[in-house]
Amino acid sequence: MYTEEQLLPLSAVGQFVHCPRRFALLHLEQQWEDNRFTAEGTILHEKTDSGVRESRDSVRIVRSLRLCSYELGVYGIADVVEFHRVSKEDIGVTLPKASGKWQPYPVEFKRGAATNLDGYKAQLCLQAFCLEEMLKVSIPEGALFLGEKQGRMKVAFTPALRAQVVNACHAMQQLFASGETPPPTFGKWCASCSIVEECHPKLIASHRSAYMWLERELDEVTS
User: Fold this and answer.
1) Which residue of 48, 130, 210, 216 is 20 to 30 Å from 6, comparing CA positions?
2) What is the pLDDT of residues 115-126, one digit of tens each?
3) Is 103 helix (H, G, I), strand (E, B) or coil?
4) Domains of the chain by start residue, with CATH
């Protein structure tokens, strides 16, 4: 169980799963730079950030819902949480001024198609963890709304995904507590990163390779 002072942003889990160095640069070194991808993401979130509530037949829609989990040490805001009316009395939750039971269904909005799918799923699943802890309810599924495709992708919160999220939350807490930024690993995931210029993955990686080569050469000379 984490204290309030130890809580990290919920969205950080997606960054950590995508790249631990990105997480450290953003949350330890406070580096950030907007690019086209972050700007498009801001536009996509304009409606979800409004906090407007809607009712559609057997669905209640809540936007910008504040979330927290002391068990996993995170806090944040869910883009959209839908509450679907269910017929069974042993599932779901009760809602103010609404009869019956309602099943929470988190929906996370992302601008891309599948740039960081593992990170997106982890963030969505963590929202479910928060809702389960706060509402004392089981949530088996949610959805990602991918902006480029203008459509939803269902995400089942499987035991494997849940385990990955729990491990990532504890690992990022340990990394944050250490205060040390991991070295870079250059890959295709760097292409759309908004802080790639601050990270210098190619440059630092090449310097590390050169240092390791020099170290090997000196070992051979002195041995």
Assistant:
1) 48
2) 678 999 999 999
3) strand
4) 4-19+29-179 (3.90.320)
